[in-house]
Amino acid sequence: MKYLRICLILLTITLLPFRSAALEQAQLPEGYCHWEVAEYGIAAPLCGLAGDAGRGMAIVSDSHLGNCLACHQLPIPGVEAYGTIGPPLEGIAARLGEAQIRLRVVDTRHINPMSIMPGFYRDPRLIHRPGKRYRGKTFLTAQQVEDVIAYLVTLK
Amino acid sequence: MKIASRYFVLISGLALALPAGYAGAGEPRSGYEFIKPATREMQDDDFLNPGMFTVEKGQALFNGQPGGDGKSCADCHGSEGEGLDTGNIARYPVYRDGALVTLQKQISQCLTGTTGKTLPDDHPDLVALETFVRNRARGKPVNVQTDGPMVKLLEKGEQLYKARYGLIDISCYHCHDMYPGQMIRGQKISEGQGNGFPAYRLDIGEITNLPQRIQQCLTLMRAEPFESGSDEINLLGLHIMSRSNGLKIETPAVRY
Fold first, then answer.
1. Smallest CA–CA separation between A76 and chain B, in Å?
2. Which fold has domain B51-136?
3. Confidence band for B20, pLDDT divided at 50, 70 and 90
4. Do A20 and B8 touch (CB under 8 A)?
5. What pTM, to 2 d.p., does this model score?
6. Do A52 and B37 contact (CB within 8 A), yes or no?
7. Domain B29-44+143-255 top-level CATH class
8. Is residue A133 a contact partner of residue B32, using CB atoms and an 8 Å limit?
9. What pairing do the DSSP bridges indicate for beta strands B253-255 and B199-201?
10. What is the pLDDT of residues B150-167, one digit of tens each?
11. Å from A18 to nearest chain B CA?
12. Which of A121, B16, B139, B201 is 20 to 30 A from A8, comparing alpha carbons?
């Protein structure tokens, strides 16, 4: 029994690179743009898209879209219910540059692996047990993420 | 390779970064402490508590012949369930004959034994019976076994509790152990204790047992929920109930 277990462990270790290769080969969902992290940020806009701050403000408030208010306080007039899980975002652009904000919205676990914050443009292949209608999808589209960033950089 | 190794690092990072009882260390706190005062009042008054309708429905089923022509539950256990051992009710889920038995499963087996009929997991009649039976033990402290054969099952349950799910990509642990007491929009996050279930949920206006509550949470996480009666949902339920050991049963609690 013990021998069998050791064999299994050895086999697992041997096969690990193959498993990784399998994930690597798993197709990225159609339309998902690749992005790269450098200096704790993502410098280039996703898919080269330009964001719109007005649309971004609507997305952060909409509970079916960004739903940022679920966890963060934001300086939006008329909003009373907000969450206290994440830091308030007023003045965020005075503390972080656009590239740093982009990485935090796209996939903040590159900075804090234990973070509770969802990656709004996280690689869909890394999502565990996504609901049927969410398979292969990102939380927000690349355009929506850029809109949110365009809004957040105004919060100085 | 890059993404894969990142994934691996994240998984191992998660395992390392979760010492047992992170912020949840200390005495467990019932969801009652996290709900609004008006909701507490509603729970405390049996005439206001909407969950009492389900207790009554459960009692009617308990006294009737829910599955066919067999005996009623009341024939053995009394019309008010006074023959039930409430201390034993507080011990569910239990380990018996090599398997985990939830209170619902026990009731279901009893029903099948007396009436020959089987109800699917989480059938409204089963949930009503579960609510009635659990309500008989209101005030008794939850007392789930945590040693012996339960150890391995609890470990599995804890792993499921600490795994991330769905597009929102968080675990039960993230909200209920790291952030209880914080606000998520207008609601306070509780410790995710199981002592109030089945509970009446104001958000959906329905009585909800623990497996259903877990499914509702997973759906909210935009995850594929575990099926009713599956090992995963029962192991999660076991872990959650074990965290509630010592808390008084509040069924039917009123929760958001």
1. 14
2. Cytochrome Bc1 Complex; Chain D, domain 2 (1.10.760)
3. very low
4. yes
5. 0.86
6. no
7. mainly alpha
8. no
9. parallel
10. 999 999 999 999 999 999
11. 10
12. B16
Residue with tokens 């509790």: B161
Answer yes or no: do B224 and A131 touch at CB < 8 A.
yes
- B253 closest CA partner among B125, B106, B139: B139
User: Looking at per-residue confidence, does B116 or B217 come out higher?
Assistant: B217
For this complex, say whether ipTM is above 0.95. no
Where along chain B do its domains lie? 29-44+143-255, 51-136
More reliable by pLDDT, B102 or B13: B102
The answer, yes or no, to whether residue A30 has pLDDT greater than 90, is no
Q: What's the mean per-residue pLDDT of chain A?
A: 88
Phi-psi region of B81 (alpha: psi -120 to 50; beta: other; left: phi over 0): left
CATH class of segment(s) A28-152: mainly alpha
Of B134, B123, B129, residue with least CA distance to B212: B123
Q: Do A128 and B165 touch (CB under 8 A)?
A: yes
Question: Left, alpha or beta for B53 (phi > 0: left; psi -120 to 50: alpha)?
Answer: alpha
Structure tokens at A122: 């996280």
Which among A116, A123, A134 is the nearest to B3, CB-wise? A123
> CB distance from B4 to chain A under 8 Å?
yes
Q: Spell out a b/e string for B108-145, using b for 16 or more CB atoms within 10 Å of the CB, else e.
A: bebbeebbeeebebbeebbbbbbbbbbbbbbebebbbb
C-alpha span between A72 and B175 (Å, rounded): 15
Rounded to whole angstroms, the Cα distance separating A79 from A60 reads: 12
- Separation in Å, CA of A150 to nearest CA in chain B: 22
- For A111, the closest chain B residue by CA position comes to B10
